[in-house]
Amino acid sequence: MTATTTPPRSVFPRGSWPETARITELLRRETVGGALLLGATVLALVWANSPWSGAYARLRDLTVGPHALHLDLSLGAWAADGLLAIFFFVAGLELKREFVAGDLRDPRRAALPVVAAVGGMAVPALLFVLVNLGGGSEALQGWAIPTATDIAFALAVLAVVSTHLPSGLRTFLLTLAVVDDLLAITIIALFYTRELHLPFLALALLPLAAFGFLVQRRVRSWWLLVPLAVATWGLVHASGVHATVAGVLLAFTVPVIRSQAAGGPDAGPGMAEHLEHRVRPLSSGFAVPVFAFFAAGVTVGGFSGLTDALTSPVALGIVVGLVGGKTIGVFGATYLMARFTRASLDEDLRWVDVLGVAVLAGIGFTVSLLIGELAYGSGSERDDHVKVGVLVGSLLAAVVAAVILRLRNRTYRRLCAEEERDSDADGTPDYYEDEPARGA
């Protein structure tokens, strides 16, 4: 009798073809958003360091909104509290879809990006704390700043260096960033809530429940859903919890899989996919770039000013956390998971590919800037140091990741070419069509 051997597990297995195709299209759209994000950041930096910097500050600090509802906020605050709620709504939809209907509903597939995300948050936070131990409790409030990964910025870097990551690494990077966002919003809710008003938080459950009821009934009327979402956001804001939390809560009420009465999972896109398709362009094309425009405009004051800012333990801790902490955390967690589960890399991949993705995860921008404002207060000296640290750390991570990934780009191109060459007329690569046979 011939003994059967179980094929070794892969650290970055290819997902199903529908999931791979969906993620490829999603990343393509995020790349456009990353270019807009990059443009908004450059514009803010140029304007804030020009002779017209005063006009930029006046625009950012312009107060609008009803005072009676405690919503008389500056434009910068509206971008941070309001527009980023849209960003977290999309992130929440993507996370729920991945774990309910995507390949990550398999706990074995979900374990790696989740563990890598946790490692990629714990190590940067630890390094930041070590750098700022002598700065007192106020300096340590920014421990969570270097823990976030900005997927749009990371994809913009990939587009600039024209690299073609294999599908397994692309899925890993996207899922890592989405889980990262969920952990970040949890940190914001738990550690950066200054005062909590429970009555407003309890009242927020009413429009939230109504929104959930409607989307569960597959109601798509914007004139019903948008007012309920805005009411939930306003009440969460009034409760003292950061208003972006409302975006995630709303997203988690949206059903992912179509009901049997509506035709079941094979009857087309579900409610979550429908809303994501509608809202994602608003998030990546407007909300995040506008936030970046108002958040990234720090007056550096030339090379000497940049040097002075980087001597601050806060800025230094952020740079060390983003460049060193993210790399160690993501790569180390991935390597340990592989050793623990006795999984191996795909035959075409090397550990240097994982290292490149781990360094790329050190591009922290949107959420890092948000946490910096919450930790030290918008416009404070330490907040300016945060912006310098985030910009320099993200730039260093981008450059190092670009160098590493470009060295392997010839291999990536070959893998993409082989996948396209193996495709049939229907556009589905043979690898995926053979999945049932391989799993039998």
UniProtKB/TrEMBL annotation:
Keyword terms: Antiport, Cell membrane, Ion transport, Membrane, Sodium, Sodium transport, Transmembrane, Transmembrane helix, Transport
Comp. bias (Acidic residues): 419-434
Job description of the protein: Na(+)/H(+) antiporter that extrudes sodium in exchange for external protons.
Superkingdom, taxonomy of origin: Bacteria
Protein name as catalogued: Na(+)/H(+) antiporter NhaA
Protein family: Belongs to the NhaA Na(+)/H(+) (TC 2.A.33) antiporter family.
Gene3D superfamilies, per the entry: Na+/H+ antiporter like domain
Catalytic activity: Na(+)(in) + 2 H(+)(out) = Na(+)(out) + 2 H(+)(in)
PANTHER family per the UniProt record, alphabetical: NA(+)_H(+) ANTIPORTER NHAA (PTHR30341:SF0), SODIUM ION/PROTON ANTIPORTER NHAA-RELATED (PTHR30341)
Annotated region (Disordered), positions in chain: 419-440
Residue stretches spanning the membrane: 31-48, 68-90, 110-131, 143-161, 173-192, 198-215, 222-238, 244-261, 282-303, 315-338, 350-376, 388-405
Localization (cell): Cell inner membrane; Cell membrane
Organism this protein belongs to: Microlunatus spumicola
Predominant cellular place of this UniProt entry's protein: membrane
Coiled-coil regions listed in the entry: none
